[in-house]
Write a structure and sequence with these properties.
By secondary structure, this protein is of the alpha/beta class. It has helices at 19-25, 42-58, 66-75, 81-93, 102-117, 129-139, 153-167, 173-178, 200-213, 230-239; strands at 27-30, 62-63, 146-150, 183-188, 193-196, 215-216, 228-229. α5 crosses α6 (129-139) and α5 packs across α7. The chain is globular, with a radius of gyration of 17 Å.
Length: 241
């Protein structure tokens, strides 16, 4: 990724990007929450679902932990069986691939941050998916410039707090030697797009600001960040058939 492709300021409250942008410029670590967009207007949701399926099928930059494979089945039951099978196999090949043994120790280490952030473990599927996904991003092998995409503010906050300690050198030796800070991007379902997550307060204010502007990233011009009025996008969706 060239320097000018990622030179926008994450503190800029107008930043909102598409899944295509993130997958093109980063290794995307995703959890179950971003596999659905039920709160978006129908044209937005359909556009996002098409993009999501295409990205999962053809992008090598999409990664997740094993339990997302199980949890995805109930969320993606609108896909024809043959395509769903291909897609889930694609996800499966990215599950826990080449992660070191320390991966499982890191899950335990992250539990302290998750508990403080209010993450409920295990989740409704009786899994620890949130921490598995976060750990994969932090020390998974062969990941370049990884980002976490999630609709779970508590998981995003967990990673923010971990990053603070990690960048100050306050982490186990194996994490400091092989780990990395992973930027969380929050999945805004009403727009089916992503905004950088810097903290819970910032996220709430950013969401209010974006909602007041009615913006949605569809066309990718400068740095993949373009702003369209929601009404314009809805008109485009209606004409899309």
């Amino acid at each position: 990724m060239s320097e000018d492709e990622n030179d926008f300021d994450l503190d800029d409250w107008t930043v909102i990007v598409s899944l295509e942008y993130l997958a093109r410029n980063h290794d995307v670590i995703f959890d179950t929450s971003m596999l659905d967009a039920t709160n978006a207007p129908q044209p937005v949701m359909l556009h996002y679902q098409r993009t999501l399926l295409e990205t999962l099928e053809y992008r090598k930059s999409m990664h997740s932990a094993g339990n997302v494979l199980v949890e995805a089945r109930s969320l993606l039951d609108y896909v024809e069986p043959a395509r769903l099978g291909r897609m889930l196999r694609h996800i499966s090949r990215r599950v826990d691939n080449n992660v070191p043994l320390e991966y499982y120790r890191l899950i335990e280490h992250l539990y302290t941050y998750a508990k403080k952030a209010g993450v409920v473990l295990p989740n409704s599927f009786n899994h620890w998916t949130d921490l598995e996904v976060a750990a994969l991003g932090i020390i998974g092998n062969d990941l370049k410039s990884p980002v976490l995409v999630s609709g779970d503010k508590k998981l995003c906050q967990t990673l923010v707090e971990f990053n603070k300690d990690f960048l100050e050198g306050n982490a186990p030796d194996y994490v400091l030697s092989m780990g990395r800070a992973v930027q969380p991007w929050y999945f805004e379902q009403e727009m089916a797009a992503f905004v950088p997550f810097i903290g819970k307060t910032d996220c709430k204010q950013r969401r209010r600001f974006l909602k007041s502007k009615g913006t949605f990233d569809l066309e990718e011009r400068k740095h993949g960040v373009t702003y369209l009025k929601m009404d314009d996008f809805l008109d485009d969706g209606k004409n899309d058939g």
